[in-house]
TrEMBL record:
It comes from the Bacteria. It comes from Sporomusa silvacetica DSM 10669. PANTHER family: EXPORTED PROTEIN-RELATED, FLAVODOXIN-LIKE DOMAIN-CONTAINING PROTEIN. This is Flavodoxin-like domain-containing protein. Gene3D superfamilies: 3.40.50.360.
């Protein structure tokens, strides 16, 4: 009789041990690091199905940093929107010029030309936030190219006040396009933005 009790006790101990191991494995599998890695693998496996272009305008370099991180995640091509006449480096002069252009709906001429934009299926469009919305060079870009039927994904960098009207204005300028959820981040956080970018991309990429 004692032998039977001993065998039952051994079985109970073994079941408890393997149960604990299973929970430990599950916890490791669902850890933030592994979930982030799974998100990145999902993004990389799905993005080749469509031809992607990351196009952006950047003045200080913050939006350029985010654009490069997005491109590293989704692949595709990347193009910087550059104006024929560069913007001033002085902050006050820049703010004044941007305000004048926005109020007069001035569209600065672009040095950047994209000849085969019709071949892209998904276009990420990035910019800083000037005066609560997209800078006029981005308005020029959206006015010059027919993006009908394409999927547009906006992203922006800002000084702490969020995306403002930028995503709404991009949608208004692209009435025949599908505009997905955008991504906004403060300019001083761009160097460590990759986890947030991966989380955002995992939600919007099908």
């Amino acid at each position: 009789m004692k032998k039977i009790y001993f065998i039952l006790l051994v079985i109970i101990v073994l079941l408890a041990f393997f149960g604990a191991q299973t929970q430990l494995f599950s916890a490791k599998k669902d850890s933030p690091a592994n979930m982030e890695k799974a998100n990145e693998e999902q993004i990389k496996s799905l993005s080749p199905a469509r031809k992607i272009l990351v196009v952006y305008f950047s003045h200080s370099g913050s939006t350029r940093e985010i654009a490069n991180q997005i491109r590293e995640s989704v692949g595709g091509d990347i193009v910087e929107i550059q104006t024929v006449d560069p913007y001033p480096s002085n902050y006050v002069a820049l703010v004044m010029q941007a305000k004048q252009e926005r109020e007069s709906d001035y569209k600065p001429a672009l040095k950047t030309k994209i000849k085969n934009i019709e071949s892209y299926d998904v276009i990420f469009i990035g910019s800083p936030i000037w005066g609560g919305t997209i800078p006029q060079p981005v308005v020029t870009f959206l006015s010059e190219y027919d993006l009908s039927g394409k999927t547009i994904v906006p992203f922006c960098t800002h000084g702490g006040y969020g995306e403002g009207q930028s995503f709404t204005d991009i949608a208004k300028l692209s009435p025949q396009s599908t505009v997905l959820e955008g991504f906004a981040i403060e300019g001083n956080k761009v160097k460590t933005a990759q986890p947030e970018i991966a989380k955002w991309l995992s939600k919007i990429i099908e």
